[in-house]
Amino acid sequence: MITIEQNNTINNYRLNPAQILVLGFASIILLGAILLNLPIASKTGESVGFVNSIFTATSAVCVTGLVVVDTGTYWTMFGQIVILMLIQIGGLGFMTMATLVAFVIGKRISLRERLIMQEALNQFNISGLVRLTKHILFTTFIIEGIGAFFLYLKFIQEYEAPKAILFGIFHSVSAFCNAGFDLIGEGRSLTPYVDDILVNVIIWLLIVIGGMGFTVIMDLLTFKKFSRLTLHTKLVLSITGILILTGFAFSFIVEFNNPDTLGNLSIKGKLLGSMFQGITPRTAGFNTLPMDKLRMASKFFIIILMFIGGSPSSTAGGIKTTTVGVLILSIISIIRGKNDTEVFNRRIAKDVINRALAIAVIGMLWVAVVTMILSITEANKDFLDIFFETVSAFGTVGLSLGITSKLSLIGKLVISLTMFAGRVGTLTIVFALGRKQQNNKGLIRYPEGKVMVG
Amino acid sequence: MITIEQNNTINNYRLNPAQILVLGFASIILLGAILLNLPIASKTGESVGFVNSIFTATSAVCVTGLVVVDTGTYWTMFGQIVILMLIQIGGLGFMTMATLVAFVIGKRISLRERLIMQEALNQFNISGLVRLTKHILFTTFIIEGIGAFFLYLKFIQEYEAPKAILFGIFHSVSAFCNAGFDLIGEGRSLTPYVDDILVNVIIWLLIVIGGMGFTVIMDLLTFKKFSRLTLHTKLVLSITGILILTGFAFSFIVEFNNPDTLGNLSIKGKLLGSMFQGITPRTAGFNTLPMDKLRMASKFFIIILMFIGGSPSSTAGGIKTTTVGVLILSIISIIRGKNDTEVFNRRIAKDVINRALAIAVIGMLWVAVVTMILSITEANKDFLDIFFETVSAFGTVGLSLGITSKLSLIGKLVISLTMFAGRVGTLTIVFALGRKQQNNKGLIRYPEGKVMVG
Ligand SMILES: [K+]
Ligand SMILES: [K+]
């Protein structure tokens, strides 16, 4: 009897991987907030206030990009570099960083640590995880380096060398990590570059590659034929492609003659601007068109795209492309009267479909609750603006119709929490809140009861 | 080979129960629309136009209550009686009516017809279904009769006898069938009776009893102790109770000092008005407060309640109380780390949970697509108004922030289709669209592929 009690106590004090993940992220945010709260972080020489620091640090670590003060205008270079580092840490995931540290100091990685990493990276197997982590770091720095170089070529035409280098690195990291922070100033994001081909293509590539997930990148780097790629890669590529093209076509048609967005641009500008609209809801958060001037239909369409977000094990947020893909395939299979959900000559397991359904429903519940709270605390604002802001935070997108800095204190805290939940994954939070899985064997199991639904 | 071909052809021409259900409802709507399109249906002596007739007939048969022309002001007594009959037919379900006809003319009911009824009533067993149908009709007419009598006692104080009788019957049927049509005139719904106890209590009871579902009513009519009731009844009663009390408390707090709604009412009026707000989203569609004057938070809260709606096998719409209950219980069981979802000492089967998830996701997809279409066709209107209208149509609720009559032609057709889908059930539509369930035995089954979601 006493033994059992002790075991329970020990189990209660031992954190599960999901809890460690949540606490780790929270610690980094807190550390970042303390740094950003220092007077030397702000150009005014006065602290920005702790709620604003928490908000900014959360937004950076959760690679969201929502800002209460403009990153380019308000923060000193110290502040901007803190933000850059928070983005990089958040983007790679603190577990990968921990692996790097362990790797550098030669410490052996225990099975327990590997399990934690598995949770963080949402990977299939423990074996090869350390190798994968090295690949992740190497690949990330290579890609970000290339991106920074090309962006530097553009920025050096406008700014002096040190600033152009910082701008190149900052925007490359911010794009690859799908963070959406920018240093352009005055909340303009990338609107000055709406019809600049170089900036557009580099940012597109960084966003899309960063949002595909490391597993897909690794798979693609083997340069196999499409048919030899894994099912996961095929799904990610197809769905990402469909989402981008749909977003592009939708924006092009709906905004074509909107004088505040595409209307006054050349055809080149219209095409580049629409393409950016199709890509940025893959939770990047940059924008080249003024978001608040979009038509209502475009705003709602972007809400849907933001809710979907990027792909698993990437720096992107949202419920993920594959979740939506699996759900749509599953509904198609019901309509076709098939027992199995099939794609690319493979069958998708029932528990994957159930997990996808759970993720979608929990996501929608979360968005509904947050929108509800904000529609009380921000009663003076427009519903669509609030709804957009909520989904943007949940999907860690960072696009806004302009209300972020005008949020009430409670509003800022709720949005911070939503960014956090969106980043570490609602399911992880649910598991973190939960106790250890109970072993039902030997316990009395209730008889099944009949319930009608729907 | 030829034999197989022929079999397939026969199977293709044979309608499945779901298809018969959909076609049956559609036929009744068409018949209703033809009658309402007649000049004698309208007080102006001129036809209301076919799209408006289709809209009104769909709204009546689908017991929604959204109206493009005010029921009390525009239609003649002929038109109002057509609407009353469409509501009664829709509410009871045309399959129950068909059973009545079969019962009256003494025709034996085939197994095939019983299966169709099963689909319509969403029942567990075929046996006893004919008996149940008789009970349904008997119980419905008794309850509606009692309701009509009490409402008559109120209306006779204001109108002459024939009108008071029609008003009593019409509003009793409309409330029990959760139809939400009213004859009060000038689009006021029941606002003149916001602080009238008799009208409030009678309408509450009719709405709640009608929205619980026939199985629950039957179960309750045996007058057992709560613990002896079926799991389904317990769930319906608990969740309905929670939803009503939550809606009541929310309205009372949020609208307490809103001068356009509860603000200028006495405490009695405030309590009655809030209670009505808690009950009417159980897809009734009546209102005693001006909906467009509610605070933003109240509007969004009602959207959520409308989406949930009433209980299965009732006259109510929405994704249903039990669906939401099962989902919440399932999420709680995940948090608690339990394998089984349990409630009232019973375990809920995995496939019920999956079905609930599918219903919720398909419902949200449908609402998202319709809102998307309307935000293009109704670009001049407010997003919250459009979203509210869409969910109201999907949940066959009938509440509106005032845009129904101002909808564009496409908007009216899309809302009609949404009411239809909401009534016959999105899943039924999906199955109706689908082919016969394929037998996978003997076919090649694809190997399972790995996909990460979320
Ligand atoms: K972002
Ligand atoms: K209704």
Automatic annotation (TrEMBL), chains A, B:
- Give any GO molecular function from the UniProt entry: potassium:chloride symporter activity
Transmembrane regions = 20-41, 47-69, 81-105, 135-153, 165-185, 197-223, 235-254, 317-336, 356-376, 409-433
Q: What membrane topology is given? A: Multi-pass membrane protein
Q: Which UniProt keywords apply?
A: Cell membrane, Ion transport, Membrane, Potassium, Potassium transport, Transmembrane, Transmembrane helix, Transport
Kindly list the places in or outside the cell where this protein is found, as annotated in its UniProt entry.
Answer: Cell membrane
InterPro entries named in the record: Cat_transpt (IPR003445), TrkH (IPR004772)
Cellular-component GO terms for this entry: plasma membrane
Q: What's this protein's name?
A: Trk system potassium uptake protein TrkH
